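Minutes, structural biology subgroup

Action item carried over from last meeting: produce the structure token record for PHOP1 phosphatase (Cardinalis cardinalis). EB confirmed the sequence was re-checked against the source entry. Recorded below for completeness.
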Amino acid sequence: MAGPRPPRFLLVFDFDETIVDENSDDSVVRGRALPEPLRQSPQGGGGYNEHMRRVLAFLGEQGVRPAELRAAYENIPLAPGMAELFQLLSKHQELFELVLISDANTFGIEAKLRAAGARSLFRKVFSNPASLDRRGVLTLGPYHSHKCLRCPANMCKAKILAEYLAERAREDVEFQRVLYVGDGANDFCPAGTLRAADVAFPRKGYPMHRLIQESQEKQPGAFQAAVVPWESAVEVARYLQELLR
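Output recorded by EB:
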């Protein structure tokens, strides 16, 4: 007897400014007094992950309780239309396999997805590991190491996506299309590996969208995937509904 049919589409989500409407790191520190060295986050490189490790350690040392941190993540607003997109996906779980690849952290992402009632939609969450130590301080680590020159030292999303697709192929799951929803410069790297049948959904006016536009101007045809910019995730939902027809 044949088992259930594998999903036809892989839907990859970013988290910050994609699923949620702001940067979750900003949400956690908002309204809290940080010492001068921790106020300015480093730009580029691998320094940002290390910077957030120090910020979270400082908050823990100042007595910020895990429950406060969890509440901060839970209260981040979803991006416009994201609740509607999740509703559509919950009705078609047999067709879409969802994974989340984010340079935020597992503690915050898990807290927000559960609060939004969306955790069960995602087969896997790939993010920087974060857990509470015995003092109740949230400790953050890098996700992995890699050789990609475009990405921060702690995470190359293209590497994660390629490894996931290879793992699923070994399990005899091949997707008709990969659909990638993101916003940031670090989403451009994996989006650039998509095929002509695939779809990139960059958030309109954000770095991923600008980088795709620049690459299309410099090298027409080099960016292979179809590009569907969005301001509300309802636009992503509409595209998926057309795809199902």
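Discussion: Strands lie at 9-13, 96-101, 122-126, 130-132, 138-140, 177-182, 199-202, 226-227.
Next step: EB to file the record with the rest of the batch.
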